[in-house]
Amino acid sequence: MNIETPLVVVVIANWNLREDLLECLGSLYETDYSRMHVIVVDNNSSDDSVASVEQQFPQTQLIKRSENGGYAVALNDGIRAGAILNPDFYLILNNDTLIPPDTIGKLVDTMLSDPRIAITAPKIIYHDHPERIFSLGDHITPWLPLPVRVGRKAFDRPAYSKTQEFDYLFGCALLMRAQSLKEVGLFDTSFFMYYEDSDICRRMRDAGWKNIRVGSALIRHKASLSSKLVPEQMVYLRARNRSWFYRRYRHGPLPAATFLALFFGSIKTILTYLFTGKRTQIRPYIHGALDGLRQAVPPLTGTSWD
């Protein structure tokens, strides 16, 4: 690539996933993309993550937080720190992912093809089952109360290798245009973790930007390893934030229909926990869902560049 290659600042949030973070960085530094700056924001890990990165990947910029302020807070800290470099794009990357050498280049090429693209994302496949797709994205339809998820846990096939526009993209790997972030704002920190990716995709969409899945680009995802560290807290947050999100953004013809769809989806989740030996997750799930309904939906929080 020549000197006109756009600058990509990679932002990785980490909390107590030392081995996976190191493996992620190892794959990242083997990329064939030539203009890249990597920032790891550590959320006060206790597993020697920071020292290991300093020793094994000294070229990485480290931001050491004194407390775990959440995933969205860490991402925003990394984005703001990277802004001094005036990058063209930010790559938001989960620490439990592995990125093939050509993925960043493919995402950037798609970005350059259309100035109204805010986000490009690779096709996410399971690390241990690469024949299966973790996620492609979600489509909003005017007559359905919830968006339609495409490709979830499906076997990969040629149709999934196309470039497609989606309303929502899963946040484990998002290449984001700096200009669109300056216009729309950063991640909403009130979510702490979960649905902050859907929220920013929705704000981009509502502002007239495009969210694109590049099916020819891949990323391997180890599928929510972080949530297994404190499962009850994560179950609570996912349920609460789901309610907050669908109360903030209308889907379908009637809010009551969305509420019913969420209710029956919650019943299905509770039964799944009941019959799969995850009974300890039922109480925090119910607690989170109820808090998401009875608490006021917070305004956008922490999205300013200041």
UniProtKB/TrEMBL annotation:
Q: Which organism is it from?
A: Candidatus Dojkabacteria bacterium
Q: Which UniProt keywords apply?
A: Glycosyltransferase, Membrane, Transferase, Transmembrane, Transmembrane helix
This chain belongs to which protein, by name?
Answer: Glycosyltransferase family 2 protein
In alphabetical order, the GO MF annotations are:
glycosyltransferase activity
Q: Any stretches that span the bilayer, and where are they? A: 256-275
Q: Which residues form a coiled coil?
A: none
Q: By its UniProt entry, which Gene3D superfamilies does this protein fall under? A: Spore Coat Polysaccharide Biosynthesis Protein SpsA, Chain A (3.90.550.10)
Q: Which Pfam families match?
A: Glyco_tranf_2_3
The family note in this entry says: Belongs to the glycosyltransferase 2 family.
SUPFAM superfamilies of this UniProt entry?
Answer: Nucleotide-diphospho-sugar transferases (SSF53448)
**Acetylation is among the record's keywords:** no
Asked if the keyword Lyase belongs to this entry, the reply reads no
InterPro entries cross-referenced by the UniProt entry? Nucleotide-diphossugar_trans
